[in-house]
Amino acid sequence: MDDFSFSIFPNENFLDLRLYQYGWEQCAPLHSFGPFVRNHYLFHYVISGQGQLDAADENGVDHRYKIGPGQGFMLFPGQVTTYSAHKSDPWRYTWLEFDGLRVAEYVDLAGLSPGQPIYHPQSPEQGQAVGDTMVYISRHSDQSPLHLVGHLCLFLDGLIQSSATRRELHGGWLKDFYIQEAINFMERNYPREITVEEVADVCKLNRSYFSKIFKENMGCPPQEFLIRLRLTKAADLMKGTGSSIGAIAAQCGYPNQLHFSRAFRKRYGLSPREWRAQNQIKRKR
């Protein structure tokens, strides 16, 4: 393996699951990055060597973690982090930056959170398999975007299945039924105002219990999922149609364009106009 590789994912509109950048690096002694705040999820797997991560938890309390070969660490959107290589045994790692509508759910299933960002595999072999999938993505940037996203799915599945902190789901099929009913309802009705109480009522559940099982299964509260759904639909329309941003905002449940712009920038890191300039499909006349 070379000392460094970095690739940016092609500008393709994978909204449910998307890669942003990926690579690997043999770090110099004491090489550090941060403090920095990410817009997306960023996972590092340590192939060899050592280092440390300084990261704030959900309450803003700082923690320091020592990390060695065969382990990994997840950086979360909005989390302040700094990580640095050991002075005499600097780490070599591979990384993936990704995001999507259900990524919070997948990361939560792996038992990772801002308060528990360290990945411990159940066995060295399982950990190496996760790292190998990441290296494969980094070494095959010339493959099609669909091919790379397919391997991102394999990475996430491997991360969940191998994590020593993975969550075990109980009460499976019935909870899955309620969650699917809720998602179907939101997908049909996202253009209008929807309350959590209304969605819970569709599922014939108490609001607090519904919110609890939805967050447990999806990794975020129902209202946050609805925001992601609306913004995902809006991004799709901005890329594929010539409708005005105001019309798209209203069509996706944001009658106030200013509120839409603020929510969109918070989610994508760009204003709607800037994002569209970079992503809109150019149609032949």
Structural commentary:
The chain is an alpha+beta fold. The protein folds into two domains: 4-162, Jelly Rolls, CATH 2.60.120.280; 172-279, Orthogonal Bundle (Arc Repressor Mutant, subunit A). It contains ten helices and ten strands. It has helices at residues 103-109, 124-139, 145-162, 172-189, 196-202, 207-218, 222-240, 245-251, 257-268, 272-279; strands at 4-8, 18-26, 32-37, 41-48, 51-56, 62-67, 72-75, 80-85, 92-99, 118-119. The protein has a six-stranded antiparallel β-sheet, with helices on one face. α2 (124-139) runs antiparallel to α3 (145-162) and α4 (172-189) packs across α6. The N and C termini lie far apart (46 Å). The model has no long low-confidence stretch (mean pLDDT 88).
What descriptive keywords fit this protein?
single chain, 285 residues, alpha+beta, Jelly Rolls, Arc Repressor Mutant, subunit A, 44% helix
Largest sheet: 6 strands, antiparallel
The first-level CATH class of the largest domain is given as Mainly Beta
Name the CATH homologous superfamily of the largest domain: Regulatory protein AraC
| Class derived from helix and strand content | alpha+beta
Which ranges are low-confidence, i.e. pLDDT below 50, for 5 or more consecutive residues? none
> Biggest sheet, strands in spatial order?
1-2-9-4-7-10
State the end-to-end distance.
46 Å
Average pLDDT confidence is 88
Helix content: 40-55%
The CATH topology annotation of the largest domain reads as Jelly Rolls
Please trace the helix and strand order, writing H or E for each element. Answer: EEEEEEEEEHEHHHHHHHHH
Count of spatially separate domains: 2
CATH architecture of the largest domain: Sandwich
Q: What oligomeric assembly is this protein in? A: single chain
SS strand fraction: 15-25%
Please tally the β strands and state the result: 10
Q: Mind telling me the C-alpha Rg?
A: 20 Å
* Apparent shape: globular
